[in-house]
Backbone:
């Protein structure tokens, strides 16, 4: 009775939600290598990191004709161009001298951007992030129930990346055996994705107080809502940041939003796994004065563990080997989902006709 219930749950949930898991698996497999296939010139240039040079670059962006960017994501070793984000969804890539290499009016113009929107929001920002988190929990359920079902037939296990033939029994057997092979990686992908969406669950994963510690580390200091100054000394601001954290990389700069009166600068310390880092500095938007600086390495152990979830999920650690492993995980999830949907809605859910008794 128990195994029958597990089988029904696995089959029906997989049939209904399978297409979402297929999309998440495929998009994740591509995004693991996003910087490699992003098409833009100068992306292999050496990265500029001195306070003077970064300050000059930001000043160039802020004083350029037209509207200034709301955010600057600085060049990294894997993608040696800067990315600008404007209010309204537009953006641009520039070289590290500030020359525009490519620009767009919406994310739909750049595959690397709309794939992120698909994988993170299912094109339904911002509420789609919740749906993706729920899909992560459903994925965990599928891994657990699938492993339980495989245990009954473990003696017939056979390693195959593709079904032996395109018959329903062969596809089901392949689905079962391939699923148990990649189950640990799928579980890792699903649980890290769900934890990023539903932060309170980190209190279960990393111990009580994790969410509070993370919120404390990210909460900006108190400062009145003020307008952005017209003649800010960006060079001094960046050199101040370099003096505070001599070994850190400049990662992003965000102008004030809503009622904030602070400019937020993110840096990445050598010991941080998170690509954009959690080492943060806040400057007064009207004067450019440093209000507060926080070293990510001073955060609690639980908060630092939470910061490591994204690089584990997105294969930002471990080099090419780990990227390949996570790529295979995403592709494997897509294969499992496609075949499961095909067999269920094709012939997998049809009962075999009863044999008629001979007269």
Residues:
């Amino acid at each position: 009775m128990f195994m029958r219930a597990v089988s029904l749950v696995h089959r029906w949930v997989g049939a209904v939600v399978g297409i979402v898991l297929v999309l998440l698996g495929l998009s994740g497999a591509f995004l693991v290598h996003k910087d490699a296939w992003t098409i833009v010139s100068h992306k292999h240039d050496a990265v500029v990191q001195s306070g003077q040079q970064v300050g000059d670059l930001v000043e160039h962006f802020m004083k350029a004709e037209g509207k200034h960017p709301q955010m600057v994501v600085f060049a990294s070793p894997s993608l040696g161009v800067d990315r600008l984000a404007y209010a309204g969804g537009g953006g641009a890539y520039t070289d590290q001298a500030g020359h525009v290499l490519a620009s767009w009016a919406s994310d739909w113009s750049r595959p690397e951007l709309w794939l992120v929107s698909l994988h993170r929001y299912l094109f339904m920002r911002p509420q789609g992030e919740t749906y993706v988190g729920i899909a992560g929990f459903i994925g965990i359920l599928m891994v657990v129930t699938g492993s339980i079902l495989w245990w009954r037939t473990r003696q017939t296990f056979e390693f195959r990346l593709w079904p032996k033939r395109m018959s329903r029994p062969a596809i089901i057997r392949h689905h079962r055996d391939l699923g148990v092979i990649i189950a640990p990686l799928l579980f890792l992908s699903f649980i890290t994705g769900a934890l990023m969406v539903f932060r309170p669950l980190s209190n279960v994963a990393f111990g009580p107080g994790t969410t509070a510690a993370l919120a404390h580390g990210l909460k900006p200091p108190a400062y009145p809502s003020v307008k952005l100054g017209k003649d800010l000394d960006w060079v001094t601001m960046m050199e101040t940041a370099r003096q505070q954290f001599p070994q850190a990389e400049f990662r992003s700069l965000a102008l004030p939003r809503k009622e904030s009166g602070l400019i937020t600068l993110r840096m990445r310390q050598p010991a941080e796994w998170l690509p954009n880092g959690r080492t943060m500095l806040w400057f007064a938007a009207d004067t450019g004065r440093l209000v507060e600086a926080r070293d990510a390495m001073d955060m609690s152990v639980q908060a630092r563990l939470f910061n490591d979830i994204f690089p584990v999920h997105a294969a930002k650690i471990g080099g090419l080997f780990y990227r390949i492993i996570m790529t295979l995980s995403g592709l494997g999830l897509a294969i499992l989902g496609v075949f499961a949907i095909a067999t269920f809605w094709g012939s997998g859910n049809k009962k075999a006709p009863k044999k008629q008794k001979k007269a």
